[in-house]
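Batch 3, record 17
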Amino acid sequence: MRHIISLLVENESGALSRIAGLFSARGYNIESLTVATTEDPTLSRMTIVTTGSDRIIEQITKQLNKLIDVVKLLDMTDGDFIEREMMFVKIRAEGEAKRAEIQRLSDIFRARIIDVTDSTFSVELTGAGAKLDAYLKTLPDGDVIETVRSGSMGIIRGKKALTI
Amino acid sequence: MELSGSEILVQFLKDEGVEYIFGYPGGAVLHIYDALHRQDDVKHILVRHEQGATHAADGYARATGKPGVVLVTSGPGATNAVTGIATAYMDSIPMVVISGQVPSAMIGSDAFQEVDAIGCTRPCVKHNFLVKDINNLADTLKKAFYVATTGRPGPVLVDLPKDITAPQIKIPYQFPKKIKMRSYNPTVKGHPRQIKKAVELLLSARRPMIYSGGGVVLGNAANELREVTRKLGFPITQTLMGLGAYPGTDKQNLGMLGMHGTYEANMAMHQCDVLFAVGARFDDRITGDTSKFCPHARIIHIDIDPASISKNINVDIPIVGEVKQVLADMSKLLAQTEQKSDAAALDAWWKRIGEWQAQDCLAYDKSSPHIKPQSVIESLYKVTRGEAYVSSDVGQHQMFAAQFYPFDEPRRWLNSGGLGTMGFGLPAAMGAKMAFPDADVACVTGEGSIQMCIQELSTCLQYDLPVKIICLNNRYLGMVRQWQEFFYEKRYSHSYMDALPDFVKLAESYGHVGIRVENPADLDSVMEETFAMKDRVVFLDVITDQTENVYPMIQAGAGHNDMEISPEHKKNLGAVNPEGELA
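Prediction for the assembled complex:
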């Protein structure tokens, strides 16, 4: 099953490689991993999307918790949470008809065109992973020049929060 | 007090109570060696290879319970130490390794003797630190010792760039007595409700079994384990790492379990209805095929490490906490409870175990014209009255030592159980001898293993460490040969050690005593002679039977009730059919 695990980790140079190293050393999957500093500069917030049986996921959370750099951990999948991912797409856009079509599709998906040349559009889109996939599917084959995806981030619904 | 980084390190070690540091100098640690030279409190032991330094520190830690401390230089110094660090990591041994590093400004420039020591050791340390600022040095060292010695212990590496240790830069130093880490708080006390449930289940058992591991030794919980085991009156077995935590000669003890465990221990594991795992981690050499592991049992598991719970085997009642504390709590509860165990069921269980024991699974051919390896360990046991510190390397000799030297005390048996590191034995024996100069210290080894760290014979001479090396020399890598005999139709691919040195002359050339023994009749007297030479290193080269195998053996994919047993054991089978069910 797919799990989304959020971590607060010490904002130190070795922390990311320790966590990534744990996944490779123990043969766990990483679907995506995002990390950035929080409002407290000594802490980084990391979101890892992984897949595995209940037993594997339990091991992943326990092994992550064992790392000295991991301050706090939460498996979002256990409760109600919001998940979003951000994507940039550079699309081949030549000719009036095609440019209009891409603009229309982007409106439907609430994507924003953030850069334009005479032959390309660059588009920004935020949403669940499935929405991003769906948007890409609507674009004509061969017109996607480049995609950049952030990987998923998550936050718990309601008053509860992952803080120290 | 204003000190340089090197002086801070040395002063810190002194303040932390470190007696010995095992190391090898080199460019990146010369400032530190200069500071070491200017004092006498922290004694430095110069090894002959950094692997030897880590194993010696490890042996010291296993024998004493105090952290082993290592000092190595950058680059090859650090990489040579990796095997020893990984050995300590797999067996959860407290160790602090200080590695030199090229100056901060040169890190990443492929400088001379530069290696990413933090990256190299990351998968085999509990934690590691790169010191970037001299102002953090003392706190970082304190954190290293704190992390290494608390919770589930393990090795911690501190990488020290040369500029941090430079004599020109001095800062005020104060010993950090306490350190707090927001992300590291090991659990101490077990959950009371879980402990209560565990006691109830134990007392309801009809065919109980206690399975204890290295955690009891590491957690200094031998007394608590003995108390609980005796109160319960249950049979107990230990892992290779747990030997000595419960007296090896006690009647409740069924000996070691697992791949080369005793027949009675493995059979009892298979048939038990409640399994009580104490500070053990269900390693694959213990469980065999996990789908056939303890098929009738409900399982209780005490472990300091939550990640060990239900990792390999699902358990019914997990208790996370320090083994010592949890067992003490259990003992109290056992004294208070009204619930009584089923005496009749226990009697029947012990009777069945007695029948397994009567088969004498460790029987071997005593009429052989060759020296049997088992008899060497028996002789060692007799001569040292079972009181020696015994280190071993890895292979058949290790298993024979575990089977034939019943340890009555913890921290006497020093071996690389998890990583299985050949070359561990001699330096580990040195570490133990360092800590207990008046005790008998023996290294049980083979002619293969001993050559992996033989250079340390030189260290033994320099520091007057009269350990006794008992080399079971069968001119084969014995365990490899055994597997090739069983699983590769006797194709002995590269398991014969051709061109062996003359170990007697080799020992002599290092300034020690070498003795060779080939005749079974001479064994005991030569062993006496060896240990009578209190102040000499003696290399006893015992020429043993080339064909002997370690039995019993659980082969890959088999359950505990499915053991390969020795020809002598087969003669004693009597009323028990091969499946081990009573006829």
